[in-house]
Specification:
Shape: globular
Order of helices and strands: HHHHHHHH
Structural class: mainly alpha
Helix content: 55-70%
Number of strands: 0
Radius of gyration: 18 Å
């Protein structure tokens, strides 16, 4: 896709969305990293919905160390990627994966009792699903080559062709 097929306003709005989502992921990862007592154990153990058994298994003593590490690492990597504008498509997919897992841990489904963290009343769609959809939209647009580290590489390659 070429950047010139979109208006500056469109690309600026998409870049802003990318930066906001990136900041959200980065902040969540850093807060967890900087808190030595943080663990996903309670969140996973309290899971509800059809995948409750899977999430409770992940909360077990054999798995929780790796799960905590992967969660923090992916949050930070997705956040850095989106904020700085490099490998945004790849890390957007990782972000979508994380958000879908968070959604499945506490799905707002009719008839399922929500036992975990909730910031409001949801029915089928919650903030995790909305943010995942926003990332799916961002994957479709070249925001990093418009504003981000990828733009620097694009300019460098354009100035120094290797033919």
């Amino acid at each position: 896709m070429k950047n010139d097929s979109y208006s500056k306003g469109q690309l600026n709005a998409l870049v802003l969305l990318r930066l906001f989502i990136g900041w959200h992921f980065l902040y969540e990862g850093l807060i967890k990293l900087l808190n030595p007592s943080w663990t996903a154990k309670g969140y996973l153990a309290g899971s509800s919905g059809p995948f409750k058994g899977l999430f409770q298994w992940l909360a077990g003593d054999a798995m929780i160390g790796a799960i905590d590490f992967l969660n923090i690492a992916l949050l930070i990597l997705v956040g850095l990627s989106l904020t700085l504008g490099f490998w945004t498509k790849l890390f957007s997919y990782f972000g979508i994966g994380l958000l879908i897992l968070y959604y499945l841990a506490y799905p707002p489904l009719p008839g399922w009792e929500v036992t975990g963290p909730s910031e409001g009343s949801y029915f089928l769609i919650n903030k995790n699903l909305i943010e995942a959809a926003a990332l799916a939209i961002l994957v479709q647009f070249p925001t990093a080559s418009y504003f981000g580290v990828e733009l620097l590489f694009k300019k460098k390659l354009k100035n120094n062709p290797t033919t």
